[in-house]
Design goal:
alpha/beta; FAD/NAD(P)-binding domain; 3 domains; seven-stranded mixed β-sheet; six-stranded mixed β-sheet; binds flavin-adenine dinucleotide
Length: 456
Amino acid sequence: MELEPDARVAIIGGGPAGSLTAFFLLRLAREMGQALRVEIFEPRDFSLTGPPGCNMCGGVISESLMQKMATEGIPLPKEVLLDAIDSYVLHTDSGSVAIRPRSDEMRIASIFRGGGPAGAESQKPLPWLSFDRHLLELAKGAGARHIPRRVRRLAWDAEHRPLLFLQPERGAARGGEGELPGEGPYDLLVGCVGLNGSGVKLFDDLAFGYRPPPSDRAWIGELYMGHEEVHRRLGNAMHVFLLNIPRLKFAALTPKGHYATLIILGQDVDEALAEQVLRSPEMRELLPVGWQTPVRPCHCQPRINLGAPHRPFTDRVVLVGDCASSRLYKDGIGAAYRMAKACALTVMTRGVGAEDFRLGYWPACRHLDRDNLLGHLLFSMDGLMRHLPPFRKAMLAVVGDEQRNPEDPRRLGSALWDTFTGSATYIDIFRRAAHPLNMYRLAMAILRAVFLRSRA
Ligand SMILES: Cc1cc2nc3c(=O)[nH]c(=O)nc-3n(C[C@H](O)[C@H](O)[C@H](O)COP(=O)(O)OP(=O)(O)OC[C@H]3O[C@@H](n4cnc5c(N)ncnc54)[C@H](O)[C@@H]3O)c2cc1C
């Protein structure tokens, strides 16, 4: 089912997946000499501070993704990139160790997805640019039309083409009017609605068997400390906490200009768990002396993708980004980038039928989903390490030894770095972590820790 000449494409959602899908579609269409009309429906104004302008994310991207984007003609200006992070410190209740990656390729940078944390408007003009706004402008520059409206309902027309019904503008709603007449019909509808809010429910209207991926709540807080204090306390490092707190998987504190962004991942993360992490001695050591959690810090509890979607496509409809397949616990933006490209390539070189997506786009989703299964395994091993003190001590000892020897290939340290930053796939991390020399060193360190413990 090929796209007709001058086809009309609707993209719901102007986050990274939506803007990048539009960009790649329009670029490929231009290269193939095909006319294409792309409309992005996105109600959020990404230049606003606080929740109205923000797509709720830790805001860490890897150097390798930035380089890949730059070679694709999507350079990120320095106003978008806040801090270059060149190392991380692993904190456990048995001590901490600083880890440097093996090469500059593995550095990461921090960004704000929207206009910045609530209250940052007092710093006007803001000393940074929104990442999502930058990508949306890029898509507009490539020829996409941005329609700043929320989509409320979907339907098929008589020829089985998708129709969109928009939420009325504020004034119209007050008058008690129903929704506006349907937009479309469209030759292709791309759903890039993420997992937060009711966007994924829209696709129930089209009844093609789509089910969103499983997800859980996480916690993100922007802790204001001021630029100097952030850099004095955190340096250019991301601080990762593997603490023995029930329901916690891991927490990370990342420097971001005047702020330190705290991300908490675990099971049903709530305010009580966030408070427990903030009060842990390991975290206290990094926060300014006497630091109190502000009564209302800019924080949110977004949903994080934990698995595979069911049937994210049908004839003339496909879902991309968090609402389909993403990377487990990291690099969601990198995953959105890769899936947007796979989707655009399928549409322009195969077509927009369910069979086209099954053959062209679905293998890319399956590849990510299978890699995430290994990710689950790695995180469960990491959980084991956290709950058993000899394992924890052994891990710190091996990573510490690796760092002290400049000739060491640093397999465990680099596997941990990639686990938290998204610079490599889980299969690659698994290969390095399971290297026989690594296993031998860990086994020896565990025996030593058990022996010392029993003597004590
Ligand atoms: C706690 C946490 C930390 C994370 N940290 C990182 C990180 O450090 N690095 C990283 O790479 N990834 C991170 N991620 C993942 C990353 O946030 C997502 O993978 C990424 O945002 C996915 O992009 P998307 O475009 O698919 O969805 P989103 O960014 O969620 O965008 C969806 C868009 O759709 C719009 N929308 C929804 N419904 C409608 C509608 N009905 N009509 C019109 N528009 C609609 C929304 O307004 C929104 O703009 C993190 C996620 C979580 C939960």
